[in-house]
Write a structure and sequence with these properties.
The protein is α/β, with parallel strands linked by helices and about 500 residues long. The chain has helices at about 5-10, 80-90, 115-120, 125-140, 160-175, 190, 200-210, 215-230, 235-240, 255-275, 285-295, 300-315, 345-360, 375-390, 395-400, 465-485, and strands at about 25-30, 45-50, 65, 95-100, 155-160, 180-185, 415-420, 440-445.
Length: about 500
C-alpha cells in the first residue's frame, strides 16, 4: 500500500486527514527478538510505542491496543486515531497504547538485518507476539488483575488496513489475552487468496468515476497516448522532452521503452490508489477530484495530465519529477514491487516489499483503466528471488491460522468496518458472519480507507453514515465490555 509515505496509509492522508495526537515516545526495553527461540527472553530489543493515560480510570477499565503497521511512527504523529484516543477512551475511561511494528522506524530487533534475519524475524506472528508481550507487561504495571476480577483490564485491539488485519489476528490467535477486536478496512480476504485480481483496481476506477464522471476513461486514454508516444521516440526523449522529469532521475534498471512504460504505469495506478484511500468525504474538494479534473480537461494533452499527477506526488508541485523518489530502499529495488497498490519508499518501502514477498501476498492486476498488466505469481516469485532471495508463500498464513474459513475457527467479538468507496473493501469482510458469535460487519457507502478511524466524532466533515457508525461502534464496544467484565474464569 502506498501514498507518498507509508505512514500516510495508516492515517489515510488527504484534505480531511486524521488529526493524530503528537506524543512523546516510550520504549519497551524487554521486547523479545525471537518469540520462537528456545530461550526467548535471552535476547531483547527496545520497541518504540506510544501511550495515553489521559482518560484511564485505573484497574477495572479497558485498554485499547492500537496496532502499528507498515510505517515508522514518529513522535510528531504519535497516537493515530482521535476516535479512539479521545472519543472512545473518554467514554470508557480507557488506556491507549500503540506499538510500532517491528523493523519499522526505531523498532529494530536486530541492527542491519540481513535477508536471513528478516525471514526468521519479520513475520506477522512475531509482530503479534510483540503486541501481546507489551500489553501484558502494561497490564501488570497498571495493577490490573486476572479475568473474572473487578480490576481486570479488558484489551480491545484496533487497527486500520494491514493493522486492521493484525487486530483481527490478535483476537483469532490470542483470545486468552485479547478480549475483542475492531478491524477497519482489514484485507483478510487478500491474505486468504480469495480476491480476484481485477477487483481492486476496478473499484479504484469506479471511485474515480464517482468523483468525476469521465475520469476513468480519461485515465485509460492518457496511458494509451503515453504508450503510443513511445512507439515514436526513446524513453529518454519522452522523459526529457515531454515529461517533467529531473535529469538523470531514471533508475538504471529501466533500460528500454517497455520497462519505462510499465514503471510509469505503476506510478499512475498506485497514485490513484492512494488518492482513493484518502477520498473522504467524497466531494469536489478532495485531491482525487482535483486530479480527475486535470485528466478530463479537453485542452490538456497526455503529458500535461501525467505531469499534473506527478506534481501531486512531489512535495514541491513545481519541482521536476524524480523517478528515483519512487523506489524503496535496498539492493535491486524496483518501482513494481511486491504490492501492486504500491509498497512505499525508503526503509519502510523495503520492509513492506519484503512482507508482501513472503507471507502477505496480494493478488492485484493492473486493470484496463490503468493500461492492463496482469499480475502473476511467477512475476512475484522472480521479483522476490532477485530482491530478497525468497519465494512467496501465499497460502501459508490462511491455512495455518484458519482465516480462509473464519466460521470454522472459534473467533468471537470482532467488528469489521469498511468504506465501500475504498479499493481495499473488495478484500475485507463486508457481511456479518455470525450475530451469535458477534462477528459483525459495518459498511459505510461514503467511507474511504478506514474513514471511521481517521476522523474525530462528531466532525463537521463526517458523512452521515460515518457519524451513525461511530454511535453504533460505541454502543457495541460498551456491550462487549459489560459482557467481558461479567465473565467468569472457567
Amino acid at each position: 500500500m502506498h501514498l507518498s509515505l507509508s505512514l500516510a496509509l495508516l492515517l489515510a492522508v488527504g484534505p480531511h486527514a486524521a488529526q493524530s495526537t503528537p506524543t512523546n515516545a516510550s520504549y519497551f526495553d524487554e521486547q523479545i527478538v525471537n518469540h520462537f527461540s528456545a530461550e526467548p527472553h535471552e535476547t531483547t530489543y527496545a520497541q518504540r510505542f506510544y501511550e495515553s493515560s489521559k482518560y484511564f480510570g485505573g484497574p477495572g477499565h479497558p485498554i485499547f491496543l492500537v496496532m502499528g503497521g507498515e510505517g515508522a511512527i514518529e513522535p510528531s504523529t504519535g497516537l493515530f486515531y482521535p476516535f479512539i484516543n479521545e472519543v472512545l477512551a473518554s467514554k470508557f475511561h480507557a488506556y491507549v497504547v500503540e506499538p510500532e511494528h517491528r523493523f519499522y522506524g526505531e523498532s529494530l530487533p536486530v541492527p542491519n538485518a540481513t535477508n536471513s534475519d528478516l525471514k526468521l524475524l519479520m513475520t506477522p506472528e512475531q509482530a503479534l507476539r510483540d503486541a501481546v508481550t507489551l500489553v501484558n507487561s502494561l497490564r501488570e504495571n497498571l495493577g490490573c488483575t486476572g479475568k473474572g476480577t473487578p480490576t481486570y483490564c479488558p484489551v480491545i485491539t484496533v487497527g486500520g488496513s494491514y493493522p486492521g488485519f493484525l487486530s483481527f489476528s490478535m483476537r483469532l490467535l490470542f483470545p486468552q489475552h485479547i478480549d475483542a477486536s475492531y478491524a477497519a478496512s482489514a484485507p483478510v480476504k487478500f491474505y486468504a487468496q480469495q480476491v480476484d485480481g481485477q477487483e481492486y483496481y476496478d473499484l479504484i476506477a469506479k471511485s474515480a468515476e464517482r468523483s468525476l464522471p469521465g475520469c476513468a476513461k480519461s485515465i485509460q486514454t492518457t496511458l494509451s497516448d503515453f504508450k503510443a508516444s513511445l512507439a515514436e521516440a526513446t524513453y529518454q526523449e519522452v522523459a526529457a522532452e515531454l515529461l517533467n522529469m529531473c535529469p538523470r532521475s531514471i533508475p538504471s534498471y529501466i533500460d528500454d521503452n517497455e520497462k519505462f512504460y510499465q514503471e510509469l504505469q505503476m506510478v499512475v495506478a498506485y497514485t490513484f490508489a492512494g488518492l482513493n484511500m484518502a477520498n473522504y468525504p467524497p466531494n469536489d474538494e478532495t485531491e482525487l477530484h482535483e486530479v480527475c479534473k486535470s485528466f478530463t480537461d479537453p485542452d490538456s494533452d497526455w503529458a500535461e495530465k501525467l505531469n499534473f499527477l506527478f506534481g501531486t506526488v512531489n512535495e514541491d508541485e513545481d519541482a521536476c519529477f524524480d523517478l528515483h523518489s519512487q523506489l524503496p530502499a535496498g539492493d535491486k529495488a524496483t518501482i513494481s514491487s511486491g504490492d501492486w497498490s504500491g509498497v512505499g519508499t525508503g526503509a519502510d518501502g523495503k520492509m513492506w516489499d519484503f512482507q508482501t514477498c513472503s507471507l502477505l501476498v496480494e493478488r492485484i492486476d493492473i486493470t484496463e483503466t490503468f493500461g492492463a498488466r496482469p499480475w502473476t505469481l511467477d512475476w512475484l516469485n522472480d521479483h522476490c528471488q532477485q530482491r530478497f532471495g525468497i519465494s512467496p508463500s501465499p497460502n501459508l498464513l490462511a491455512s495455518t491460522w484458519g482465516f480462509d474459513d473464519i466460521l470454522s475457527t472459534p473467533l468471537t467479538r470482532t467488528l469489521f468496518t469498511n468504506g465501500l468507496n475504498d479499493g481495499w473493501s473488495v478484500g475485507s469482510i463486508t457481511e456479518t458472519l455470525s450475530e451469535e458469535r458477534q462477528l459483525i460487519a459495518m459498511n459505510f457507502p461514503n467511507g474511504a480507507h478506514h474513514s471511521d478511524l481517521s476522523h474525530s466524532d462528531p466532525g463537521p466533515d463526517d458523512t452521515e453514515d460515518i457519524q451513525e457508525g461511530h454511535e453504533k461502534i460505541a454502543v457495541l464496544i460498551g456491550e462487549w465490555l459489560t459482557e467481558i467484565m461479567a465473565e467468569e474464569v472457567e
